């Protein structure tokens, strides 16, 4: 059974930082491109960041470039998202994603999702 389990969310003041962690089991982590998406209530999921499986190239959504950093530890089957300089607009449920395809910006390319974790940036 494939499981993606997020942790590290919470409430943080504007300008603060959080680090999200996603621990993956039930699949060969090092053979999957991985990513983070976010979703506000009643809205579509928004691409946040992705990292390729081969050379660990990072990709970012325009709204988080320069503030968020994605990384992965294949030995620990773990994906990270370091979020700095958080703003209220970053308030969303953040979801860990394992890609089944090679186009990081399409939700249809995600094969497995985590359950999501709440991040709230207060003003």
Quick take:
The protein has 123 residues and is an all-beta fold. It is built from no helices and 11 strands.
Describe the protein's topology.
Elements: E1 3-7, E2 10-13, E3 18-25, E4 34-39, E5 46-51, E6 58-60, E7 68-73, E8 78-83, E9 92-99, E10 110-113, E11 117-122
Parallel strand pairs: 2-11
Antiparallel strand pairs: 1-3, 3-8, 4-5, 4-9, 5-6, 7-8, 9-10, 9-11
Could you give the distance between the termini? 40 Å
- The unreliable regions are none
Q: Which range best describes the helical content: under 10%, 10-25%, 25-40%, 40-55%, 55-70% or over 70%?
A: under 10%
Order of helices and strands: EEEEEEEEEEE
Explain the overall architecture.
With 123 residues, the chain is mostly beta strands. 0% of the residues lie in helices and 50% in strands. The chain contains no helices and eleven strands. The protein has strands at 3-7, 10-13, 18-25, 34-39, 46-51, 58-60, 68-73, 78-83, 92-99, 110-113, 117-122. A hairpin with a 4-residue loop joins strand 7 and strand 8 (78-83). The N and C termini lie far apart (40 Å). The relative contact order is 0.30. The model has no long low-confidence stretch (mean pLDDT 95).
